[in-house]
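SAMPLE LOG
Freezer: B-3
Tube label: C17
Construct: single chain, 78 aa
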Amino acid sequence: MTFTSEMVAELNLLLKFPNKSLMQGLKIHNDAEPEVIAAATRLHAKGIVTLPDGGYLTDLGHDLFEHAQVVKMALMEK
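STRUCTURE (predicted):
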């Protein structure tokens, strides 16, 4: 199975969350790109973020963020 465009949008949004503090989150505004808004809604439905328009990462979200960082670093050009 390959990554779908929806999965890529979700991963990209996940990587935009602040990682310095558990008390920081994201707010996706209604004028954001439609694929970003849809990705935030899907992440919320999956229990990865606290609100349909972003919010904070859940415990699952923090775990996935760390894994996404590892994948990103492994695939970056050196």
